[in-house]
Amino acid sequence: MMACHPFNLVVGSRLQLEAESDDCSRTVTLLGYMEPHSVMLSWPERDGVCMALAAGEPVLIRFEAGDSLYQFQSRVLCTCTDPYPYLHVAFPEGVQSVRGRRASRVPVNDMAMMLVMEEQGQKLSVALADISMTGARLVAGIRLGEVGERFSIEIPSLNGSTGGKRLVLPCEVRYVREEMSSNAGKRVYHHGVEFAGLNHQAMAFIEEYIGNKVVEHRGAGG
Questions:
Q1: Quick one: how far is CA 222 from the chain centroid?
Q2: Which parts of the sequence belong to the PilZ domain (predicted)?
Q3: Cis omega (within 30 of 0) on the bond before 44?
Q4: CATH of the domain at 165
């Protein structure tokens, strides 16, 4: 069952937008809003190009607040290109919370679970420390990138859910934290990454993976 939530986001917040004409969610920035008229968002991009969106097109908006994930249905009111690309969507009639586990960050603590990242034609193995529906924390012995940089990580499928193929998850670096490893005394880097442009298959995979981890943790605690 979904619960209502007030729309009280801070300007500059990152949201996920899904349009009917697109099979992926796109990261957008909240530029402002005026209740009960409209919400102003940066124009979502696909491969660096503004997506084709028309007035009246339905969209689904998701965002995180605390440890929960919320969403609301809306529609495009108008699109603007001057002085920069942005759009107005209808102010939500209601905001609903999605099941808590979708946004809760679940610790993995399984260093054998490795991700493979393409960097300059080479693959680097990094550890997955925790994961949520909107992002993850990666740990590596080197700095994988700077804040704002994008890369893709590959992760093995679960029980052949993707036909034995490795799933590709596009990411954007949100923070990098340097620490000394407690067990080996070596320098390690923690990278908070936000998933960007996930298709429905990738989102279903992450939800299944998180669900399995939640069951494991409950079993261990019981």
A1: 31
A2: 101-210
A3: no
A4: 2.40.10.220
